[in-house]
Amino acid sequence: MSATKTDTRQLDVPQVVTVVPRELITDINATRVDRAFDYVPGLTQTNNFGGLGTFAYAIRGVTTAEIFRNGLAANRGGPPPLIDTQNIERIEVLKGAGGALFGRSDPGGLVNIVTKQPTTIRFVEMGGLWGSFEQFRGTIDSGGALNDEKTLLYRFNFAGGSQNSYRDFVGDDRLFIAPVLSWQITPDTKLTVEAAITRNNIVVDRGVVAVNKQLGFVPISRFLGEPGQVSRQSDAVLQVRLDHRFDADWQMRLATQFNTGTLNGESAEGRGLLSDNRTVIRDRNFRDYSYDSVIGQAELVGRFRTGEVGHILLLGFDREDFDNRQLYLRSNFNTFPYAIDIYNPRYGQPLPPLTRASNTLESVTDTGFYAQDLIDLAPQWKALAGVRFDLFERSFKQRIGGNSAEQTRAAASPRAGLVYQPIPELALYANVSTSFRPNIGTDAGLGAGSRAFEPETGLGYEVGAKVELYGGALLLTGAAFRIDRENVLTADPSNSGFQITAGGVRSQGFEFTAAGQLTPELRIIGGYTFTDAFITKDNVLPVGAPLLNIPEHSGTMLAVYEVQSGPLRGLGIGGGVRAAGERAGDSSNSGFKLPTYVVADALGYYKYESFRFGLNVENVFDTTYYVGSVSQFRVDTGSPRRITGSLLVRF
C-alpha cells in the first residue's frame, strides 16, 4: 500500500488511500489516467499543459503533478506523455503528505500507479475500441510461463490507435508497448525487469478564451492555434526490481529506474485578448526538450516484537539524478501579434520570427534516507511514526545570457499518526505530517547574482474515521484536514515578470468516500469533498483570495450493477455523476470564475464466456462545461457527448 509501502490493512493506517481498480478502468473505457481520475473523490484537474503531458491535478486543494510508478517517480526531469492505462493494474491515490516516504512532494497527496505483472497462467486478451470523433484503438494483453517450472514468467501489453477531437483540427495518435519479465531465481528471490515505451503525436491545444470574464461566447470546438502543427513525444522507462525474503519476517527490495524522453514541435498559443473583445494575440512557439533520469532505491521491511508491542519496520534509501534540457523559442507578440479572430478565425498566416529564446539545463540530485515504524500498541491501538531526510542538490543554467544558480538544501519530513479501533470494523485516526518541494527557477538576480528559490514547505493535520462493511468488501471513510504551505512562489512587487518565495496558502475542509461492493452485484466508488483553499500571505493578492481551479464543493459517484446468475448473467449496467462547484479561473484574483458543472455518464456491457462487449456514453446530456484553466485566455473544455464501443476477447 502506498501509505506505508508495506502489506498493511487500510484500517490499520492513519491515512486515506483511494484505490481505482482495473475493473473500474475497464468499466469506463479509460485509455488515459486523466479519465481514470474522474471518479476519485477530492481530485480535480487544474492544467493539462495543452495536452502535452500528464496533467497537474489537485488533491485536497493542493495542486501537484506528483505521479509514481510502482513506488518510483514517473515524472522527474520532464513532461512525460499522458500515461496510458493499458498496463495499469490499479491506481492508488494517497491523501495527505507523502514526504516521509516519497521525498519531495506536495502535502495534499500523490498518485502511485501499480502496473500489471506476469502470471503463471498463459493467456492472450485482444481488444478493440471505436468511438466518437473517429477514435480507434487496438490492445493486446498477454502473459504466462516461459518454462515448465514456471519460474520464468512474462507479461506483454500493447496499445495503438488514433483519434480526432470535438476540438477543430485537434487529434493525436499513440503507440504504447510495455513488456515485463520475472525470474523466480530461488523460492525466496525474484528478479523483475519491466519496460514501457510511448510514442505520441499531438496537437498543442490551449482551449478557449473568456470574453469580459464570461465563457460561452466561443464554441467549445473553436481551435485558436494553427492547424497542422504537431508536437512529437517519446518516453521510455526501464525498471529493474529484486525482491528477496530472508525469512518469514524480513524481506528486502532493491529497485532502479531509467527514464529518457523527448518533446519537440511547434504551436501557436494565445497570450491575451485585445480591447475589441474578439482578437486574440498569439505567439509562435518551438520546443525541443529532452530529459534523462536515474533512480535507485533499497528498502528493508521487518516484523518483530519488543515485549507485548509489535512492529513493522521499514528502512529505506533512494537517490535520484536527472537532467532536463529545454530549448524554447518564441515570437514577440507585442511586435508580431500573430492575431486571430475568435469568431471568424483565419488560419495559415505568415509565421512570425522566433526572436525570444531560452536554452536551459537543469541538473538535480536528491539523496534520501527514511525510516518508518507501524506499531501495534494493543489490540485496539496502533501508531505510525516515520521520518525522511533529504539532501537536495541542484544546478540551473540559462545558456543564453549566462544566468545560473546552484542550490544545496537539506530537509527532514517527519510524520506521526494514531489509530483507535473500538470494534474490528471501525478505525478512528489522527495524523500530522510535513512536506517539502524545491521551487524550480531563480529570482531576478542576473548572472552570478541569481539565487535559487527557497523550497516550499507544508504542514498538514488530519482526523478521520474508516469503516469496513460486508466483511471488508466496502470501505467508507470520512476525514477533516488542514494544510498550510509556506515559501509559495509569488510575484515580485519590485520587479515585474519575476517571482519570490514570500507566499503562504491554506487548504482546509472535509471529505467522505465510499468504495467497494454494496452487494455481490453492486459496486460503487465516489464521495464528496468540501475544500476551502485560500491565500494567507502574498505580495500582490489579498489574504483570503481563493486558489486557482479549486472548487469548494466537488463530488463523484459511479455505480455498476452486474447480474450474477440466471439467463442474464454477465450483463452489467451502470451510471456515474461528476460535479464541481464554481472556482477561480485565474490566479490574479480578477473575479473570473469557472462555472459549476454536473456531468452524467452511462455504461453497459455483457460478458459471455471469453468475450466482453461494452458500450459507454460519456456526458449523456451533452452538457457544456469547463474543467480547468490557467487564465481567461487558456480555458480547458470538457468533452461533449462521447460514445464508445469496446470488445475484449480472452483466449
UniProtKB/TrEMBL annotation:
Coiled coil (residue ranges): none
Similarity section: Belongs to the TonB-dependent receptor family.
GO molecular function terms listed in the Swiss-Prot or TrEMBL record: siderophore uptake transmembrane transporter activity; signaling receptor activity
PANTHER family: FERRICHROME IRON RECEPTOR-RELATED, METAL-PSEUDOPALINE RECEPTOR CNTO
Transmembrane among keywords: yes
Signal peptide range in chain numbering: none
Compartment(s) where it occurs, according to its Swiss-Prot or TrEMBL record: Cell outer membrane
Domain called TonB-dependent receptor plug: residue spans: 10-109
Keywords: Cell outer membrane, Membrane, Receptor, TonB box, Transmembrane, Transmembrane beta strand, Transport
Coarse class of the protein's main subcellular location: membrane
GO annotation, biological process: siderophore transport
Keyword Metal-binding: no
Gene3D superfamilies per the UniProt record, alphabetical: TonB-dependent receptor, beta-barrel domain (2.40.170.20), TonB-dependent receptor, plug domain (2.170.130.10)
Cellular component GO terms held in the UniProt record: cell outer membrane
Protein name: Iron complex outermembrane receptor protein
Stretches assigned to the TonB-dependent receptor-like beta-barrel domain: 183-620
Membrane-related topology note: Multi-pass membrane protein
